[in-house]
């Protein structure tokens, strides 16, 4: 899709298009209401600025649409398809899978949320190292890191829509 076509969509159509990038109503409204955009970079900048304002409740809402790292997203939604694509290149062997499963359980016990990280461009070993590092975060720091990861994922997904 090009930006001009996006600018011409109805608000409902534009929202439906960006929802799989980050399913947070305030963020989607901000992107849709920011139209018209002159180019993709302007749209991406708006999305990034809006994503930097994610609240803890918005982070929780967005996490509902993300599977555990190392687990295959189920369903036929656009979010599930994107998640499967993003994790496809990780090349997770059985040992790493077991370590991720254990790390995910520890993380969920500590933070009461799923561990989220931008998988695209990372190896399974990098993700595992980040999981271990982030287990040492305070709850407040972890919400901030999760929000940043959501913002990075949203940007990559938007770039994919407009490439």
Can you offer a commentary on this structure?
- This protein has a single domain (3-161), classed as Orthogonal Bundle (UraD-like).
- The mean pLDDT is 90.
- The protein has helices at residues 3-8, 11-18, 25-33, 40-51, 56-63, 78-87, 94-111, 124-134, 139-161.
- With 163 residues, it is mostly helical.
- The longest helix has 23 residues, at 139-161.
- α4 (40-51) packs antiparallel against α9.
- Residues 68-87 have a biased composition (Basic and acidic residues).
- It is an enzyme of class 4 (lyase).
- Pathway: Purine metabolism; urate degradation; (S)-allantoin from urate: step 3/3.
- Its EC number is 4.1.1.97.
Q: How would you summarize the topology of this molecule?
A:
Blueprint lengths: L2 H6 L2 H8 L6 H9 L6 H12 L4 H8 L14 H10 L6 H18 L12 H11 L4 H23 L2
CATH-wise, what's the superfamily?
Oxo-4-hydroxy-4-carboxy-5-ureidoimidazoline decarboxylase
Shape: globular
The major beta sheet can be summarized as: none
Q: What is the CATH class?
A: Mainly Alpha
Q: Which class do the helix and strand fractions yield?
A: mainly alpha
Q: Find the count of extended strands (DSSP E, 2+ residues).
A: 0
Number of helical runs? Answer: 9
Give the SSE string: HHHHHHHHH
Mean pLDDT: 90
Q: What is the radius of gyration computed over CA atoms, rounded to a whole number of angstroms?
A: 16 Å
GO molecular function, one term: 2-oxo-4-hydroxy-4-carboxy-5-ureidoimidazoline decarboxylase activity
Enzyme class: lyase
Keywords: Decarboxylase, Hydrolase, Lyase, Purine metabolism
Pathway: Purine metabolism; urate degradation; (S)-allantoin from urate: step 3/3
């Amino acid at each position: 899709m090009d930006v001009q076509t996006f600018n011409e969509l109805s608000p409902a159509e534009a929202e439906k298009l960006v929802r799989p990038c980050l399913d947070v109503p305030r963020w989607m409204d901000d992107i849709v209401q920011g139209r018209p955009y002159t180019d993709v970079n302007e749209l991406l900048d708006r999305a990034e600025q809006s994503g930097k304002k994610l609240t803890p409740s918005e982070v929780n809402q967005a996490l509902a649409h993300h599977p555990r790292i190392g687990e295959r997203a189920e369903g036929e939604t656009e979010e599930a398809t994107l998640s499967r694509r993003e994790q496809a290149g990780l090349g997770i062997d059985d040992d790493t899978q077991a370590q991720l499963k254990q790390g995910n359980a520890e993380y969920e016990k500590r933070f009461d949320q799923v561990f989220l990280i931008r998988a695209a461009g990372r190896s399974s070993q990098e993700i595992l190292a980040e999981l271990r590092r982030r287990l040492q975060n305070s709850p407040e720091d972890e919400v901030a890191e999760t929000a940043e990861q959501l913002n990075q994922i949203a940007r990559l997904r938007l770039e994919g829509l407009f490439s």
